[in-house]
Request: fold
Amino acid sequence: MYGINPEQGSQMSFNENEFFRDMTLRICGSLELETSLRRSFDYLKNFMPLEMISLHLYDPNLGTVRTTAAISDSEIKSLDIVTPLDERGRASFIEPDVPNVRIVNYPDSDPVISRLLVSLKLPGETSAMVMRLIIEKQRIGSLVLTAGGYGRYAGEHMKLFSLLNEPFAIAVANALTHQEVTRLKDMMSDDNRYLRKELLSMSADEIIGADFGLRGVMEMVRQVAPLESPVLLLGETGVGKGVFASAIHNLSARGKGPFITVNSGAIPETLVDSELFGHERGAFTGAVEQKRDALSGPMAAPSSLMK
Reply:
């Protein structure tokens, strides 16, 4: 089989299996879409006309196409361009008889490609080759190759590009899933931090008996909270040392900052000093970074430390 090298203007022989293997490694070698597209662009341009490769995700609910990336020789663009489609354009996206890869050498005849070229700020006199990305019979978007001028793509280019339909679809689906998991993880972390802060802020007002039997203890809490000195809380397991530690923190000048708990009973004896009082980088073997002390606020001592 032969591929056309647009730089040399001549034919170059290659092995189809090697092409598929090399391209698959480039396509699926990263969960970062821009990285995969960059590697694919650099390799594909040796076999066909190529000035830009772009990724477009279809939203059937809104009837829009969201352009998320565009790669060319000069730059890598992470984009967020939403292109609304008219009725004809939406119909073309769900048309079952359209091949997975097709050539659009004259974009004026295509309602979707002509709009996408405008969104990408490309001239109307541009040829395109479009790959439909489908996973489990669901259309997730399109990958578009473009080159300046009319009539740039031929049947052998489409045949070659078609070999990559499945690897591209799998890579894009995996990358989008990874992005969604990362987004949800960040949201969950933010929610967790917010809820912990809310619980801590409520603890000082939710101590049962603060106005009766524990009034004396709460008075001591209010006396020590403004101080900069560490505070040691003593008591048997289960008496609520952690609750009072939270109350002291919330009433202190650092009340709006983080409240970090340390389970001192779980710290090995050899690491107690380092964990509680901190250390400087290089202070001992294995100290590769600075560690701040954990005693900058109140400490609720477990019963094992009070015997």
